[in-house]
Structures are given as structure tokens and as C-alpha cells.
Amino acid sequence: MPTRDLALIIALTTACCVLVGLIGLIAVRLLRRRPLRLTVVVAGLVPVLAVAISVLVNVNAMFLSGHDSFVVLVALGWAVVIAGGLTVVVGHSVSAGALAVREGMRLLGNPEDRISAPPASDLRRPRSRSDRSRPDASGSGAAPAELAALVAELDVIRERLNTSRTREKALEQSRRELVAFMSHDLRTPLAGLRALAEGVEDGVVGDVPAAMTRIRSTVDRLSLLVNDLFELSRVTGGGHQRPRRLVSLAEVAMDVLTEVSDHARACGVQLLYDLPEPDDRLPVLGDADELIRAMTNLVANAVRHTQPGGTVQLIGNRGADGQIRIAVVDGCGGIPDADLAHVFEAGWRGNPARTPDDGGAGLGLAIARGVVESHEGSILVRNIDGGCLFELALPLAQ
Q1: In 59, 232, 333, 391, which residue has its Cα 20 to 30 A from 370's Cα atom?
Q2: Which CATH architecture does the domain made up of 177-236 adopt?
Q3: Domain ranges of the chain
Q4: pLDDT digits (tens, 9 = 90+) for 185-207
Q5: pTM exceeds 0.70, yes or no
Q6: In 203-312, where does DSSP find H-type helix?
Q7: Which residues, at least 6 apart from 328, have a Cβ–Cβ distance to it below 8 Å?
């Protein structure tokens, strides 16, 4: 073929492709606010149409024979049909994924619905609430893998938001109950203080030293309550932590037993312990004062709720998971199953049979949980035969 004819073929083909490409670009821009499937179809058909028009132009310019051009045009015709079908399928799939993503974004704030990528057939009808709550059996529906993964991630985010929302409601309810409990605990001693002060002032109290002793005792109770509130706020507020040092949990347990022994003796409760040999001191990284307070709260709580003549046992060992575990076993008779989930809530006092009127604010177990969790540990309670078992687990210091 002469060089001049070849150059003319290239020029005509280039001009046709550029013209069809510009028309396709304009069409895509005009369709940018239309459904995505239309844009995909246009983008898929433009290259095939550019080739077909280029062949027709070259045929009319007599650069191709009639027989060759007929074969090429038949092939291009089928190419247009195949390209059109494939672009429709791809556009439908992308549109399905986009609709699923949009629906997932809308449902992020709805705790009842579950997000799932809808099958292609579902796009022809509105999805009901039951459809949305039923996960797709295939896990991806008609959506591409990337969009299906995005829909699944939206579902995970929705579940996390629902969990956070539930936790926030529980915390808000706990705060309201704590305020109510604290208001009651503060109002009663303050009323007593005011009555005694007015009695002393008016001269109607004959035994002034005894009245002053009662006032001092009440102030001590209020100070203890305020200290407990401050400690609870500190260990659960996520603020500045005290320096962590190597602490022997076995020594902490022995110090606690010594501190609580007088109270246990006065209550008629026997303290028992089962700790490792002296060569294994159960080392953890933490703050000794905080750990002593947490364990003291657990043991004192066990003594307080054990009937006279009963026993409270403190057991320490290394768990199979490598954590150090301290268990406090009491003889309280057990906690109702409905109350087990609330034992470590601030202000919770259980039923009157379990919690006598000892002036406590119901913060001891909440402080114990805050201390243990601030040390990256965990604490639990469960019923056993005749009583309860409180167990805390802390990471072993390496």
C-alpha cells in the first residue's frame, strides 16, 4: 500500500476515534447525575463504536474491499452486541453495589436492620424491612467484591455503633442511679448533722461531748464516701495513671488478710488462704496501693456478707493462660442470677438480705473493677455452692 494511502487511513481512523471519543465524553458528562449503569454502558460502547465508524469511513473511501469490509462489519456488529450486553451486566452489578452502600449508610443509625448487598433481582423492587434484616446468602449478592466488602464493613460499623449506643445508655442509667444513691446517702447524714448542730446551738442537747462524737463520726462517714467517689472517678476516668512497678500479688494478699483480720474476727468469720510457696510471689506490674484497695474491697465485702461462723477463703495461683488469678470465696449464700450482671455497677447494693445497712455507698466493687481494668486485667463473679466466688486476673509480669 502506498505511503500516501497509509497516512490517509491513519488520519481518517484517528479523526473518527477522536470524534467518537469526544461525543462519548460529552455523553458521560451529561449522564453524571443519571444512574451509574448508564454511564458504564456508554463507556463500554464508545470504543467499539469508534472502531465500527472508522471501518465504515475507510470502506467508503475505497481503502477496503467489499468482501473484507462485510466480514469486519459483521464482527463489529457482534462486538457491539457483546459489549452492550457485558456493559449492561457490569453496570447493573455496580449499580446494585452502589445502592447497597447507600442503603448501608442510611441504616447506620438504625439498630434493627442489617445491611446486605442485594441480589440483582432485588433491584427491581423495593426492599422490605424483613429483606433488609435478612443477610445475603452468598455474602456478596450482585455487587463487585470491593463494594461487597464495603457493605460488610458498614455492617460491622453499624454493629459497633449499636454496641456503643447500648453501652452509653447503660452508663447513663448507671450514672443516674449513682446520683440517686449518693443523694440519699448524703442527705441522711447531713440532716443528722444539722439536727445535732441546731440542738447544741439551742442548748437542748445535754451531753455535748457525746453529740460532738456523733458529729465527728458522721463527718468521717461523709469523708469516706467522698474519697470513694474520688477514687472511683480516678480509676474509671481514664486519666493519669500512677507509675507501675513490680508488685508481688501474694504479698498484697497477705497484707489485705492482715488488715481485714480484726473486722473478720468481730464478725465471727474465719479467714483462710491458699497461696503459692515463697519462691513464687505472683509478680505483676501495677500500683501496690490500688491493688491493695481493690483486694481489700473484695475481701471486706465477702466478710460482710458471710454469716457468723462461716469462712472466707483467698486463693492465688497462676492460671493456665499465663495470667495470675486471685479468687475470694465467701459464704454469702449466693447472688440471684438476675443481679450477677449488676454486681460491679456503681451504687448497686443488691437485695436487703445480702446487703445489710452498714452505711456503705455501694462503690467498693465498682472501684475494684476499675482498678483491675486499669491494670489490663479482668474481674468476674459467679455463684458456687453456698456462696460466691470473685476472681480477678492480671497479666503476669515478664
Answers
A1: 333
A2: Orthogonal Bundle (1.10)
A3: 3-105, 177-236, 245-394
A4: 677 778 888 888 888 888 877 78
A5: no
A6: 208-236, 249-267, 288-304
A7: 295, 298, 299, 302, 312, 313, 314, 315, 389, 390, 391
